[in-house]
Amino acid sequence: MIKLIVAARRLPGMTRQKHWQHYQNVHAAKILAGPADMLAHLSRYVQNFVIDAAYGAPDAARVEPAEIDVVSEIYNPSPEAVGLLTSHPYYLSVIQPDEHLFADGSALKVLVTAEEREQVAVPRRGAVKLVHFIATRDGVDREQFFTAWRAASQAIVADPSLSPALCGYTRSHALPVPEEATRDLLGGAPINVHAGATSIWLDRADDLSGVARYRELFDEIMVSASDSLVDASQSMFLIVQELEHYPYHA
To answer: How far apart are CA 103 and CA 31, in angstroms?
Structure first.
């Protein structure tokens, strides 16, 4: 399963409420109204609304982050399906033009990924979700990073202070994507600037101590080491409310 992750911010001058309303009520409806031969390339469609966020790291060099308002997760059955979906005439004539009515194309963050799931003690639906975008230092071998990230994830899931509140945990690894395959994807937005994204689901939206503990553990294992592979200045920690549109669930 391939997961296309698109993080976007609202257009200049647009309120977050108006942006969210268009994204949820108009944009999602246009996607779900697509013809069957386009939807055949779509396995799952999830919208995430950012309710809080942190960018970079306290001790990292200052960066000017692009504030993110929403994150789309578009699941496809194969790598080829990503291109077939985003090159479909309906996508190009209806969905892509609608993107420009609410999303700032200059600030898009796009990842083409493969998702891996870590086993938590008691898998269940969470009340709140964290999406953590992770970047590597220049010159870091991606496979070396993925190996270290996988080991860190297993240690985080097993942490006794976090495990009871953890409802789910996934790791989405950025895939090598040929430039010609993504030249026209989402209006030419840069692909895979980040190396991947972790998603965790927690029990309570009114108690974000689990988010803080996850960040502590990730920093201890992946950031603080003198030979760290992670560029903490490019991190994005997005606390979101999740809404699944497709497939439908009763």
So the answer is: 15
d(CA 15, CA 11): 8
Are 68 and 9 in contact by the 8 Å Cβ rule? The answer is: yes
What is residue 141's DSSP assignment?
-
Read off the DSSP letter of residue 226: T
pLDDT per residue as tens digits for the range 33-53: 999 999 999 999 999 999 999
Name the residue type at position 176: P
Q: How far apart are CA 134 and CA 127, in angstroms?
A: 23
Whether 96 and 209 have beta carbons less than 8 Å apart is answered as no
Contact in structure between 187 and 107 (CB atoms under 8 Å): no
Tokens 């006794």, residue?
A: 160
CA-derived radius of gyration, the chain: 18
Instruction: DSSP letter for 242, please.
Output: E
**pTM for this predicted structure:** 0.93
User: Is the bond preceding residue 247 a cis peptide, omega within 30 degrees?
Assistant: yes
Which residues lie across from 10 on neighbouring strands? 103
Residue 150's CB is within 10 A of a number of other CB atoms, namely: 13
Query: Does 79 have pLDDT greater than 90?
Result: no
- 203, 122 contact by CB (below 8 A): no
Tokens standing for residue 181: 């395959």
